[in-house]
Structures are given as C-alpha cells and as structure tokens.
Amino acid sequence: MSGAVQWRIRCLRRLRGAAWFAVTVAAAGCHSPIAISHHPAGILGSGEFDVITGIDVPSVRGAAGCGAQALAAAIAFVDDGVDASALAEELPWHEHGALAVELLVEARQRGCEATIARGDLLALSQHVDADVPVIVLFDSAYEVRWFFARYDMPKVMHWAVVSGVQRNGEFVLLAARDGRHHRVVRAEFERRWAKSDCCMIVIRRQSEGCTGHAGGLIEAVSRDARGRDAQ
Fold it and tell me: Tens of pLDDT along 161-183?
C-alpha cells in the first residue's frame, strides 16, 4: 500500500472519530450549572426555598468579570447607597480573574465586614436565613453527560453569590441577572465548589458605616485560585 493511500486512510479514520465525538456530544448534551436561570416567582411560589431577595447582579465587561460582578452585587445588597452596576464598572478584574484575598481586601476597604473561610452547606443555610450574602468560588465548566458517564471539561472557576437553599437541602440557588436564580443540585454544587476548597467570602455591613481603610487585613487567605474563564 502506497504512502499516499495510507495517509488518506488515517485522515478518514480521524474524521470518522471526530464526527463520532460530535454526534456523541450532541446526543449526550453539555451541562453547566449557570447555563439556565429561573424566574423568582416560581422559586418563591413553591414555598420550598429560603431565599435572599433583592440581590442585583450587574452586567460586566471582559471575559473574566465574575469577581467584580459578585462583589458588586454583595456590597450593593448590604449597602443601599451603592449601585451594583456602577460599582462593578469601577472595580478591576474584568479582563483577569480575582483572587479571594483581593475581593476580601476590596470589600473591607469599602466599609464592609468581610471574612473568608472554608464553607459547607450548613454555613450557607445559616447565612441565607440571616439574609447575609456569601460569595463562593466554584467550577462552572461545561461537562459532557452520556448515560451514566460524565466527562469534565477544563476548569472554569467562577465567583457567584448564594441567593438561597432548598429547605430539604436538595438545591442551592445562585443569584443571576434580573432577580433570577441559577438552581444547582446540591451534590453537583458541592463537587464543583470543592475545587476551590469550598472557598466562601461572607459580606456584612459594618455597624459603624464606611471606614475607607483596609486595616490589618489578611489573617486568612485562600489559595491562588482566580475566578476566570479557563484554567
């Protein structure tokens, strides 16, 4: 068999493999926990969720603006004098991801009481009950599902604000644009959240009001994990 014929056979095999992969992906479907958002009426009307209402998630520019988006939403929620869209535009991290410690410092500089910790679902539930927004870092990458198999894509670390939990613990809600919510199955959320070591940043308003100083800030920081489009 000539070299040209062998080369054509190899090309045909590769094309057949690529076509089979495309058909498989199309049949199986890709999934991301933030691909679909749900109207608040259906969630609140069900009576099954504890929900923080009124979280304004702004639009952001750039490929990696989720850190600015989440922090602006959380600060605007605890401080009525802050406009989430204006703050998001003012914050950095639109073209590159934000480190947890950067969000922590920025929140404190803007007069918030901010703490960082390794979280769990119980802590999230307690903060939701108290109407305290929590920023979490998790893997939002699409994954291919085929029957009972799951194929993970490269990590896409994403910052978001937890906006609710189902009382039976089955779902976690993440704040979305226009007052909507992403609804994520608990097991999937915990699996994806674990990729940041369950990093959470709790944002509260200081009782004394804005101080404008970071003070002695960094007693706890997360690993060098940024929320960004790809990792």
Answer: 999 999 999 999 999 999 999 99
Give per-residue burial for 7-32: e unless 16+ CB within 10 Å, then b: eeeeeeeeeeeeeeeeeeeeebeeeb
Burial of residue 2 (number of CB atoms within 10 Å: 0-12, 13-18, 19+) = exposed
15: its two tokens: 């094309």
In the chain, the amino acid numbered 30 is C
pTM strictly above 0.70: yes
Distances 12 to 3, 20, 22, 107 between C-alpha atoms, Å: 14, 12, 15, 56
Closest CA to 158 of 144, 171, 142: 142
CB neighbourhood size of 230 (10 A): 12
In angstroms, rounded to a whole number, what is the distance separating the alpha carbons of residues 75 and 117?
18
Euclidean distance between CA atoms 66 and 93, whole angstroms: 8
Of 162, 201, 160, the C-alpha closest to 52 is 162
